[in-house]
Design a protein that fits this description.
13 helices, 5-stranded antiparallel sheet, Zinc finger protein ZPR1, 482 residues, 4 domains, Jelly Rolls, N-terminal domain of TfIIb, zinc ion binding, 29% strand, alpha+beta
Amino acid sequence: METLTEQNGIFPKLNVEEEPELGATEVESMCMNCHENGITRLLLTQIPFYKEVVIMSFSCDHCGYENNEIQPGGEIAQKGITIRTVIANVRDLNRRVIKSDFSSIRIEELDFEIPAQSQKGEVTTVEGIIDRVVRGLEQDQSVRRIQHPEAAEQIDTFIVNLQALKDIERPFTLTISDISGNSFVENPNAPQKDPATEISHFQRTKEQNHLLGIFAHDEVTDEPNKVTAECIKLENEVPEEVNSLLKPIREGAWPLEELQGEVLQFQTNCPECSAACDTNMKVTTIPHFKEVVIMATVCDNCGLRTNEVKPGGGIEEQGVKIEVTVRGRIDFARDVLKSESCSLYIRELECEVGAGALGGRFTTIEGLLTAMREQLVESTGMFMDSNDKDTKERMDKFFGELDAAIGGNKQLTIVMDDPTGNSYVQSLNDDGTPDTALRIIRYHRSYDQNEELGLNDMKTENYGEEQEEEVVVADEAEKVES
């Protein structure tokens, strides 16, 4: 494992052709079935189009018991995820599914739900989920038929209904809700859009954060009110000699012109190999748009180079949908700012890239298409199954059409949809107004979009009053106690 870590990082990519031996670690552990010692194999890897995972497989030579589970190896996602998939044919039963410990699974037609944390995380299929439920229900049926015959009969009827789902006599809906955001359902039509799947994200509640082990600073302190009062006091008066890592910038101490001309640098960990590296950050202005923050990371350990763009200011009052027709080389040179919340759709290729897939980028139309192609090429191991010729032919056809478009031999219509309104495409007109090949539509966000962005419960006026009132109450309580 040490040699593997030095060459490819802690989580090597899942590529059988280049890395036939990923170096699984074997650990002797107790079998929970016969209580003898068995072998647990651990594999740290990256699943294409998903994230880093730890795959665990246990086998016992004494009783033959086998078990496998999966644990996310990366960070907990910022938001929870809900995946709703309509299973309509046998091919849908073979969709690969990644579920974490915090995933709840619901089958709408049977009004059946598997609660979160009742099963371990695993890599399986839709059919595998049904089979595991059936095995669990059949486990104690022989005893139930003697002690509780009525309950056993009801369970037998339900098992028959579950087994009937695999015959696909009628479509059924599988819904996965995961507060950790670490669940995934395969798209068999990739890179095209999956018409049978709806994916939405949601903000976690305080209770759900606690369940994941995420706590705010004042929640793990014995005296939260005292800490809040001290923080507000420090905001008003911070002496120069305070030896802290982050110090507030006093008004007038650093003019905005100097900030825009300065390249700031701070230490981070490489997203590829987790080694310590530096990130450079600079504030700049895009003409006819707004200020943006450009961040670039270079890792000396693995050579990774990444760049990311964050729009300056807050979320705009309206969302924006930008349609640009790519007719030739002049359109390929248009500057593009794609925010993290912006989804991308190419009509002629029927290809959709979800929000956050390519991250925030400041590039050109050509750079955007090239980055999308590189990401697909690096992750083709997800699709290239030696027994699935249809998928391989579909991917080869898609890459051919994409290469023709990048080479300027195919006209494209690119649609960028950003509910935050923080995306931009350069106009060919000098005054910044949309030209004939550029169409900009502004729209009011829906309630669900505001909910996903966390705007419905956001207080933008007088938000400091409640905090000040809490501090006053804490001070008065402290006086009474003294």
